[in-house]
From TrEMBL:
Signal peptide: none annotated. It comes from the Bacteria. Keywords: Membrane, Transmembrane, Transmembrane helix. It comes from Nesterenkonia rhizosphaerae. This is Prepilin type IV endopeptidase peptidase domain-containing protein. Gene3D superfamilies: 1.20.120.1220. The chain crosses the membrane at residues 20-40, 46-65, 99-117, 138-163, 183-201.
């Protein structure tokens, strides 16, 4: 009796529901940004528009993963970091070469700010969040450095709002640990709109 050699090929790994939700979250935030661009007083440069879209894709997907797992993994931060670096360099060629220094300074400043806050607050900001923030800040710096600062401030306001809701709905007291990814995603588009509105009003 001969053995059969026509074995079926191994099945492709199935996409987990969490990763599917992350894909939907990334797409939803990017689409919301595209729709929100009509609210801007003055249109952004296409490179700036795309930089925010990249930030939306990253934060939308990672917010879902962070909510499920409480982690933003190194491989995700590396991927976002590479994308941010490539886009900042591309923006320097199409917009202004000084955007590289602006992005580097903004990323370093935001990282230092978040590191200080993490040191003071303990575990409020996780290591994955801390590694992700410079990449998003660099992307937002292609619009304006103020945009990254407003984004961080709104992220903390959103996190405090989430904590307040949990206190009311669940009756929890004391320190409440929440993933910081969702607040960062929620704060992205309002930060861009607020920055551009402020700059437009200041130019009048």
């Amino acid at each position: 009796m001969t053995k059969r050699t026509d074995q079926l090929p191994p099945a492709l790994p199935a996409i987990s529901s969490v990763h599917l939700q992350a894909l939907l979250g990334a797409s939803a935030l990017a689409v919301l940004w595209i729709l929100s661009m009509s609210l801007l007083d003055e249109p952004l440069h296409v490179m700036q528009q795309t930089a925010v879209a990249l930030a939306a894709l990253a934060l939308g997907g990672l917010a879902v993963l962070d909510a499920h797992t409480g982690l933003i993994r190194n491989r995700h931060n590396i991927a976002v970091g590479i994308a941010a670096t490539v886009w900042v360099l591309a923006s320097a060629f199409t917009m202004d070469g000084r955007v590289i220094l602006t992005a580097l300074a903004t990323a370093a400043g935001c990282f230092a700010l978040m590191l200080t806050i993490r040191t003071v607050s303990g575990s409020m900001v996780g290591g994955g969040d801390l590694k992700l923030i410079p990449s998003i800040a660099a992307l937002l710096a292609t619009c304006h450095p103020l945009c990254a600062l407003i984004w961080i401030c709104l992220s903390f306001i959103a996190s405090l709002a989430f904590v307040s809701v949990l206190r009311v709905t669940r009756g929890q007291r004391g320190m409440i640990a929440i993933p910081f990814g969702p607040p960062m995603a929620v704060a992205l588009i309002p930060a861009v709109l607020a920055t551009e509105s402020f700059l437009a009003a200041s130019a009048i």
